[in-house]
Specification:
The complex is a heterodimer of chains A (117) and B (648).
Chain A (H helix, E strand, L loop, with lengths): L2 H19 L2 E7 L4 H17 L4 E7 L4 H6 L4 E2 L1 E6 L4 E4 L5 H8 L11
Parallel strand pairs in A: 1-2
Antiparallel strand pairs in A: 1-4, 4-5
Chain B lengths: L3 H6 L3 H43 L5 E4 L7 E4 H4 L1 H9 L3 E6 L4 E4 L1 H6 L4 H4 L13 H5 L8 E6 L5 E8 L3 E3 L2 E10 L1 H15 L9 H13 L7 E9 L2 H8 L1 H18 L5 E6 L2 E9 L2 H16 L13 E9 L7 H17 L5 E3 L2 H23 L2 E10 L4 E13 L3 E3 L5 H7 L1 H23 L7 E6 L1 H6 L1 H14 L6 E6 H6 L1 H13 L3 E7 L6 H6 L4 E4 L1 H5 L5 H17 L2 E4 L5 H10 L3 E2 L10 H11 L19
Parallel strand pairs in B: 12-13, 15-17, 17-18, 18-19, 19-20, 20-21, 21-22
Antiparallel strand pairs in B: 1-2, 3-4, 3-8, 5-6, 6-8, 7-8, 9-11, 9-12, 10-11, 14-15, 14-22, 15-16
Helix pairs in contact in B: 9-13, 10-11, 11-12, 15-16, 16-18
Classes of the chains: A alpha+beta (117), B alpha/beta (648).
């Protein structure tokens, strides 16, 4: 086994652990360091902290640097928030400034888990 | 016992399996289709959501595949760039304003308008860029009610007139934003001011024109100013200015007027208005005078300033000016700007009559004259329309055969109260007021109509000559006169060659070049031209040669002296000689005695008219007289006795 394989495996396991820990996994696709990106990241962080504290993982993808991820996730615009877990995957396009809409769209309930859709 | 039905329906195990498989396949297919459908629906939702987000401005990057397989991310700020460039390079100001009135964006043009930078403007309240006085108007800024006009306040403290229009507010990132465009009206305002100035000023001299003068007079009259309350108008008319134009051309004339305008302006007091209201007519408005002498003192200063020879022509020009002064007390409700101007004009005319360089103050008798002239104007208008104007006709004789060749039409005014008014009491007035144009056209038409009647009735088809007087004012009208003559000829059907238009020498010489054009045009219609009152004005023999004149009429004042006044006889002789030299015929007016006739016959004068044969008579009587005097007439051509010749 090469070191590269080890590292990959480690990442996989780490992800599994993270997935097991985090009830909610989000990927936020943004367009570089634009103002709107900053707004969207800020909004995503604050609602996650407020409603899903300790239960979420949020990663940010810059669509200019990682076009492949964007295409793989079928994301068409930035900012877009992708809920990867729980399944099914859900997307929300926009800067996430309307918290009520975000909660409704992502089907988040503050104490309980997601209602199956 | 076996159940046949059961037995019958018993399918072999293999067939049973095949059927199940088929159902399972179908179910799987259905599930797959359902999943596909759900996925499609989800995609559709996503697209709709994306579109909505774009519309709301909540997206700043898009995945775009212009060529399939070559996807790229397109940032919306770069999509915006052409528009941003457009807005940046606009010559009009543009800005976006938040709902709280802060400038979020400003283009360079707006920054330039307020002599500031974009950096300084952005973040500041929009109202800071606007003069306090026009801030309220900005609250009315609403796309539905159209643009508002306001004054911007620059950093250097000046004011810039602008027109501001706004877009409908829209939301970006939760903020309501309005776009405004700001158009600089400075150029427009300057053009308006220039137009306004042009409308109230004389283009040649830059002085106020009649419009502005009238406004200022009205304002001055309306004022009440303590003891020094007199308002004076000094109506200044350059004496013989036409001579300058005639001698040196209009360019020198214009330059002379400019210099005169400057001298006038320098001669008056600060605050007085100097206006140019006509060719060589200037009016000075003075306020705050205590007595008449103050006005005449200013007039004297003007006269002295004008008296210094001008150097606008090849030779020094000595110019004099006639000044008429009219005064009114400030606050006098009976005085209007028009009446004061008319009074000053009247005084100026009186000054002119007394010779050049005279100052005349309008007084009460003049006011009476002015009032009677105003009445005359009204009456004369009525006379023309109401048929009070009549034509009398005086036969014109061939002096050799002593038979008539035609008549001269003479105008009379049958006034309802004053009786028959002689032409010298209203024709000069009609000339001055321009009424002569209308009257002259009527005379032409009426005389030609009468000539056509006589041509058939008395002359037996032979052309009956008709002489009609044409005034200087008619001649100056040019095309109008030609039109009137053409119409008179067409309406009456008379031979154009039988119509003689009599023009005075001074009318011809007033603007010789223009007169020559008109005369040539008239000649081309076939009519003949006579110079009336020849010898009375300044004889311009040089000009006379250029004019296609057919007849010279010797003024009655010279004819009256024939036989006893040496000088008059000499003049008459020289006029007849001149006519012969020019190859044209002479007509003597005012032949009263057989002695006049004999002398004129001796001098070779071709035609004549006078009381010896007939005064001017109404059409019917003139017709009778013509019958007696005509070559084919039945009567004798015995001269009338002088006592029967009653004409004023």
């Amino acid at each position: 086994m090469t070191g590269e394989h080890d590292a990959a495996l480690a990442r996989y396991e780490q992800q599994l652990v993270a997935a097991a820990v985090a009830e909610y996994v989000f990927t936020l696709f943004v367009s570089g360091a634009s103002e709107m990106s900053a707004v969207a990241i800020g909004n995503a962080r604050s609602f996650c902290e407020r409603h899903l504290a300790g239960r979420y993982r949020l990663q940010v993808v810059d669509v200019h640097r990682d076009l492949a991820t964007m295409m793989a996730a079928d994301v068409l615009a930035a900012p877009t928030l992708l809920r990867e877990a729980p399944l099914p995957r859900r997307k929300l396009v926009g800067d996430l400034s309307d918290t009520a809409r975000v909660l409704a769209a992502l089907n988040i309930h503050e104490s309980s888990g997601p209602i199956a859709s | 016992m076996t159940h046949p039905a059961t037995q019958g329906t018993q399918a072999p195990p293999g067939g049973q399996t095949a059927q199940d498989d088929q159902a399972q396949d179908l179910a799987l297919e259905l599930a797959a289709t359902r999943a596909e459908l759900a996925e499609l629906r989800e995609k559709l939702d996503e697209y709709e959501q994306t579109l909505r987000a774009i519309r709301l401005g909540e997206v700043d990057a898009l995945l775009v595949a212009a060529v399939p397989g070559q996807e790229q991310v397109f940032t919306l700020s770069s999509a915006d760039r052409p528009y941003r460039n457009f807005v940046e390079s606009m010559s009009d100001g543009a800005a976006t304003v938040s709902s709280s009135g802060l400038v979020l964006y400003a283009n360079q043009a707006l920054a330039t308008l307020v002599e500031s930078t974009c950096r300084q403007i952005v973040g500041a309240p929009l109202l800071d860029l606007v003069q306090p006085s026009s801030r309220p108007s900005l609250h009315r800024l609403d796309p539905s009610s159209g643009p508002v006009e306001a004054a911007l306040s620059t950093t250097t403290g000046t004011s810039v007139p602008v027109r501001i229009s706004s877009s409908a507010p829209f939301r970006v990132n939760g903020e309501t934003i309005t776009c405004i465009t700001v158009i600089d009206l400075t150029g427009e305002r300057l053009a308006e001011a220039k137009l306004e100035h042009l409308a109230r000023h004389d283009a040649l001299t830059g002085l106020p024109n009649r419009t502005l003068l009238t406004e200022r007079i009205a304002a001055a009259i309306a004022e009440r100013a303590g003891t020094d309350h007199l308002v004076a108008l000094l109506f200044c008319d350059v004496d013989g200015f036409k001579n300058v134009n005639d001698a040196y051309g209009h360019q020198v004339g214009d330059q002379t007027l400019r210099v005169l305008a400057r001298r006038l302006s320098d001669a008056v007091r600060p605050g007085d208005t100097v206006a140019r209201i006509g060719g060589d007519e200037f009016v000075v408005l003075c306020r705050g005078l205590s007595e008449v002498q103050a006005a005449t003192a200013i007039a004297s200063r003007i006269r002295a300033a004008i008296a210094v020879p001008l150097r606008t022509a090849p030779n020094p020009l000595d110019i004099t000016i006639s000044i008429g002064i009219a005064l009114a007390p400030g606050g006098d409700p009976d005085t209007s700007a028009d009446s004061l101007l008319r009074d000053a004009d009247e005084a100026m005319y009186k000054a002119k009559r007394q010779g050049p360089n005279v100052i005349e103050v309008f007084d009460e008798p003049l006011r009476v004259v002015a009032a009677s002239r105003l009445l005359m104007l009204t009456e004369l208008r009525r006379a023309r329309i109401g048929g009070e104007l009549l034509l009398h006709y005086q036969p014109v004789m061939n002096l050799e055969t002593e038979t008539s060749t035609g008549t001269e039409a003479l105008i009379r005014w049958q006034h309802p109260a004053r009786g028959l008014v002689p032409p010298d009491q209203f024709i000069p007035f009609a000339e001055r007021t321009g009424l002569i144009i209308d009257i002259g056209a009527w005379v032409l038409g009426e005389a030609c109509r009468q000539a056509s009647i006589w041509t058939g009735g008395i002359a037996g088809g032979q052309p009956m000559e008709m002489s009609v007087n044409v005034s200087g004012r008619q001649l100056a009208q040019g095309a109008g006169l030609v039109h009137d003559v053409r119409r008179a000829l067409a309406d009456s059907g008379i031979d154009p060659n039988s119509l003689v238009l009599e023009v005075t020498e001074s009318a011809l010489m007033d603007d010789a070049a223009a007169a020559l054009r008109v005369v040539n045009e008239l000649k081309s219609l076939g009519v003949r031209i006579a110079i009336d009152d020849f010898g009375m004005g300044y004889s311009s023999l040089v000009y006379l040669k250029n004019f296609p004149v057919d007849l010279l009429k010797i003024d009655r004042s010279f004819v009256a002296g024939l036989g006893h006044d040496q000088q008059d006889s000499a003049i008459v002789r020289s006029v007849i000689d001149l006519a012969h030299a020019l190859g044209i015929k002479a007509v003597a007016e005012g032949i009263e005695t057989t002695e006049h006739l004999r002398i004129l016959q001796g001098l070779g004068c071709s035609y004549g008219q006078g009381f010896l044969w007939s005064p001017g008579l109404p059409p019917a009587k003139a017709g009778d007289r013509l019958r007696l005097l005509s070559p084919t007439g039945t009567g004798t051509s015995a001269p009338l006795s002088r006592t029967s010749a009653i004409e004023s």
